[in-house]
């Protein structure tokens, strides 16, 4: 079997959900944890099998499930590990695994919403890119040959268009190699600096508010899970602070943690940061603190923000689509004018003569 680096091993969200779900089902059926892991190994994919082998070996050496999972930071986050650790102490591991399964499923659904909303604008951009390439590789060379034979003086936009077309057709392989290298470099940088990349993206005016609401949704969902598992509120706030990108949201969480640590309420820390958390969320949290059901309140906040993100995604894509179409229209119009203008000038010159 192929050897993996535990610190770099990744498992897809779908595989992770199946793993956690099956493990929870086997434990609920009364099968011991060690036997359940060995059962799951039989029909698992290679990377999942390696993961289960390592977990099994660690548990033979006396480690707990949470300690065995801790070796794989790209598979289970610190939040997931702490949920499992708290449940092991409380003796309700199967319940924690079931909560984890629900959490992973919601993460998948949430990401699918975002991907689905961005699909149409991405398709538009791809179609636009293909059309531009067809024009530069097929149409422009033929038109350039006609203009060259007629020895017509061309305007600057037309000369630029012909120059780009000639460069692409003459140096196709070097340019293609350069584009591939740039794409590979960008993918590598994204994988190794994902947080910085997303942080830069979240600073864009049209996306900043959307990213902040996504942060609040992820934060509230994870906080609800941690509190429901019995993790102390200060520890839960410290852990969830690492999952957000927005500086405003991060500062609000830190203020809430300091407030709780000093004997105050979490809602007071949130209230100090009105630019980070909406008033409705603060009210829901305050009600949860008074009723003693803060975990349930945070889940309500997560559901509320999830709905808000869905609506804002629709609004954002509704704004992006016409903006992309306008940009495409302006570019294509410029290309058409660059082609038609010399022809029109030539016809006018012939008529005058």
From TrEMBL:
InterPro entries: GspF/PilC (IPR003004), T2SS_GspF_dom (IPR018076), T2SS_GspF_sf (IPR042094). The chain crosses the membrane at residues 118-140, 160-190, 323-347. Keywords: Cell inner membrane, Cell membrane, Membrane, Transmembrane, Transmembrane helix. It is found in: Cell inner membrane. One of its GO terms (cellular component) is plasma membrane. It is a multi-pass membrane protein. Residues 21-141, 219-342 form the Type II secretion system protein GspF domain. It comes from the Bacteria. Belongs to the GSP F family. This is Type II secretion system protein GspF domain-containing protein. It comes from candidate division WWE3 bacterium RIFCSPLOWO2_01_FULL_41_9.
